[in-house]
Amino acid sequence: MDWNTRARTTAQESLRYTRFVGVMKRSLLVAALAVLALVLVYALLPRPQNKMAITAETVSILKGDLQMLKPRLTGLDDSGSPYVVTADTAIQDAHHNRRAKLFNIDGDLTQKKDNSWISLHAPSGLLEADIHKLHLNGPIAIFSDDGYEAHTMAADVDLSGGIVRGKRMIVGQGPLGNLRADKFALDRDKHMVFFYGNVRMTIYPNAMKKSGAAKPGAVKKGPKTP
């Protein structure tokens, strides 16, 4: 009788231990995912300047890499103007924890003084959070609030400076005409666009008469080398 009692007790303890081990395995997995999520968010946030924030719907692991679903990047540039960058997914660079590959990107940069804006879309890109840079791969579409649009295959966005640069051919059109150039640089805060190399512009005289003369210096043909 004593032996049977001890056997039942031992079996019950073994069952409880097995359940405990199962619960701990699940708990440790959840804890590990939570820690990895915090590592990803912390890694992408630039520590020296608290001007950028990133959020996401979910964080998971994909083939050993951290993945964010629906990431949203917000911040202010050096002049205090806001920017917002969203994507379908972000995957942390396996070799650099302050970098992330973004897919299906939309960006909006607003000028603080007059609320003018430019927006852009790109299928993919690379975020370098520590230096506030976004490298976009095309085809890229850029739009402005005054009715202009441009298309190119690659561009670099300086989120701190509010500047978009491209070293690939750009074509654009708007209310006053259309253009093409080998390279470009767009300064949002100064409301200026510089074009470099084989610049070709077609201006619609009637459109200029209706809208008045273009703002002096609004569009400039840059020097031979950017």
Structure characterization notes:
The chain is α+β, with helices and mostly antiparallel strands and 226 residues long. It is 22% helix and 48% strand. The chain contains two helices and 17 strands. The chain has helices spanning 2-44, 205-211; strands at residues 52-55, 58-62, 65-69, 72-76, 82-86, 89-93, 96-110, 117-128, 133-144, 149-158, 163-166, 170-174, 177-181, 183-187, 192-196, 200-203, 219-221. The chain has a 17-stranded mixed sheet that branches. The chain is elongated, with a radius of gyration of 26 Å. The termini are far apart. 23% of the residues are buried.
Strand pairing plus helix content: what structural class?
A: alpha+beta
Average pLDDT confidence is 77
Shape: elongated
Question: Assembly state here?
Answer: single chain
Radius of gyration, in Å, reads 26 Å
What percentage of amino acids are in beta strands? over 45%
How many angstroms does the end-to-end distance come to? 94 Å
Listing every helix as H and every strand as E from the N terminus to the C terminus, the arrangement reads HEEEEEEEEEEEEEEEEHE
User: What percent of residues adopt helix (DSSP H or I)?
Assistant: 10-25%
Give a quick account of the main beta sheet: strands, pairing sense, barrel closure. Answer: 17 strands, mixed
Which regions are unreliable across 5 or more consecutive residues at pLDDT < 50? Answer: 1-8, 46-50, 213-226
User: Count the helices. How many?
Assistant: 2
Number of strands: 17
